[in-house]
Heat shock protein 70 family (Helianthus annuus), 661 residues
Amino acid sequence: MSAIGFDIGTESCVIAAEKHGGVDVLLNYGLKRETPAVVSFSENQRYFGSAAAAFDNNNPELAISQVKRLVGRKYKEPSVQNDLRFLPFKTSESPLGGVLIHVNYLNKLWLFTPVEILGMLFAHLKQIAEINLDSPINDCVIGIPSYFTDLQRREYLDAASIAGLRPLRLIHECTAIALGYGVKKTDFPRSGPTTVVFVNIGHCDTQVSVVAFETGKMKVLSHSFDDNLGGRDFDDVLFKHFASKFKEAYNIDACSSAHSFTRLRASCEKLKKVLSENAEARLSIRGLVGDTDVSGLITREEFEILSLELLESITAPCINAVKESGLSVDKIYAIELSGSASHIPAISKKLTSVLWKEPRRIPNVSECVARGCALQCAMLSRPNHQLRYYKVQDLFPYTLGFILVEGVNKTQQDFTLFPKGSPFPSDRVIQYPGIPQCIEVIYTNKMDFPVEVGQFMIGLPYIADQKVKTELRVKLNDHGIFEIESASLLEDLGARSFFSPTEKVLASNVIIDNLYVSMTKEELAEAQNREQMLAEQDIKAEHAKEQRNTAGNFVYNTRNKDPNARAQATEHLLTCIADYRSIADSLPPGLKEEVNNECGKAEQWLNDHSPQHYSSPNNIDPLLWPEFVKFSVESLERRCEHIMRSNPASHMDKGKGMQVD
């Protein structure tokens, strides 16, 4: 049984499988190691991966991409609005404040949530994995950014459930990279922990983790990030530069249509990669706006000057991560660089100046997250796995606090459920006086303002005139999701003897409802049914396409079986043989012999096949297809023309004596 790891990136996805002690990256239908994170819709069929990405160039409004950036987010968030300006498809606000994606499909308008689109993508990746491994899969581990909120984590689980997957764990991406690094590296010094800084600069975000390694275990010391700074911002620098130049030089607006906008951005992304290897690069696009062809040149030095502000911003999470780890820069053993933007030379230079060590790029930077996820899946799913004793200790990047609601009163307690940097999974028991009707759990340090995690309704009975208090057992589970496992109502009996209880349980096993669930059970079941219906429609459309191809092949083959077509082709071959023999009479003896030999071969081929063909039963395929005869004509003409090139006069005679179609 293989252990599966999924890395769902902003632009592409990677699937890895751990089997027989090694980790392999699975190939998609196009035999590629990376699958574009795109879902597109034609009139009656969905497309995924590379096939869907083709829509992104020709009909960008039909291709849904970068859905990872929209999961668990509010439509009116400034960062979401910034992301949407890069996306050509239509969106709107849902009744609950989330994002709805508009798709015209099967002759009607569909409104999909980002969770549903992500579920479609998971279903496609699951299908790729099952075809590669020739067995069904359910258990997996999925990589997520460390900055994901509680809602985003729950929506990832819902999307996986829509696809029929059962995630054993959501693992932070830098933690997955560190796991793959720690398992492979065996030369850590035995004198103490070895500290490594992992910098992952993706398409839209930058994540930094400081990890301490010892033999048989790893411990994450800190997570830091900028969830709106990545390779896309460097693309945007080039985009703005060339859009301004083209407006001045050609009087065109590259932002005037989604098509021109998408083409210029894609070209700038390629240009960025070229500048990583060359001192200068040229950008040329045919028909960017209308019939206008554009071109421009930029040097690496100019690009770095334009990107100075971004380069400074990249260092901020690195400095913060080292500071929160409690270590000094001189204690860092190595800096490992990964992510789609890690190839920019200026980033390595900047990190070297800040962290005093030159970063090293992790091999196969686009695959390291998926490989780490596959290793984690193997450790969790196989009790006898060789790495089952390797200990991975991760930490949570936010502080969790709560607000109590008693009747109409809403009071924020100066109480921290889990401080920033708490290891997880972990649990604890808390007590406080009174009987709250509701508990609102919040992140107290998310971008300097409270972000709601959940609103938990506690079904405790109301008891008057008693000294009562509430006891809660709370937990950060394996996925980094907050849960209230149980709630009890206790009566305070005051100070009593050592052997007498000081508390009396008045109520326990009460019902706890989280009002902030991403999807109810009914909504999840409906989404699963809708995905199944859409998958059946894809199969139906594919079957219809195969039937059309079969019908086309039948028409083509029937046309080839037409005796009139065969007779015409045979007559053409005999005429061609006669004409070339006539021309051969005017050639020198050596060339004449060569041409006559070629004519004789063609005539012999026809004589050999004709009797067999005409003696065959009518209910089998013909032996002498018209296409075969036409090919013989073309072959004869090609060989004879080659022979006669040494005698130009023969071409004049040929032009007078015969006409070749």
User: Anything to note?
Assistant: Residues 521-560 form the longest helix (40 residues).
